[in-house]
Amino acid sequence: MPFDKEVYGNKVKSVTKYLWFNTKNKIEIIHLTDEVMNFVKESNIIDGYVLVSAMHLTASVYINDYESGLMEDIKEWLEKLAPENYPYKHHRTGEVNGHAHLKNLLMHHQVIVPITNGQLDLGPWQEIFYAEFDGQRRKRVILKAFGIVKE
Questions:
Q1: Can you tell me the distance from the alpha carbon of 100 to that of 60, in angstroms, rounded to the nearest whole number?
Q2: By the 8 A CB rule, do 97 and 137 touch?
Q3: What gap in Å lies between CA 151 and CA 51, rounded to an integer?
Q4: Residue range 84-126, pLDDT digits in tens
Q5: Tell me, what DSSP letter sits at residue 2?
Q6: Contact predicate 146/48, CB 8 Å
Q7: What is the pTM of this model?
Q8: CATH number for 60
Q9: How many H helices and E strands in the chain?
Q10: Cα dist from 139 to 19, 28, 37, 123, 132, whole Å
Q11: How many CB atoms lie within 10 A of CB 57?
Q12: Number of domains within the chain
């Protein structure tokens, strides 16, 4: 079976960057694609992967269409599945963010995106988002790219 592409190089590189957020709203969706694209471009990695991961259990990173109606649908869908004002057993600990932990489980906390020819290799309409479910405090996302650099 032939490959679509083969890349050879003798230099492999790993780079890391942290993005910090302090959202105005408790639940908020932030578009990250441009920031991740710039990170990949600055890394000089031409073939590899970039990990985008929320470093908190009450937030998520996901890939979907950048359309405002869909983003509102996602928020409404998550609220139906994990309503904020439900008596979660987690709240017995003094925390009141049980809904945010469950929303994280539904949306996941990270994505891995291929890098091809020095660019994010996303499909049509695919964009990267950070979803905050327990905001109004400082949170972070890690970007970690790994791959072959230009010779």
A1: 10
A2: no
A3: 23
A4: 999 999 999 999 999 999 999 999 999 999 999 999 999 999 9
A5: -
A6: yes
A7: 0.93
A8: 2.60.120.460
A9: 3, 8
A10: 8, 12, 21, 28, 9
A11: 14
A12: 1
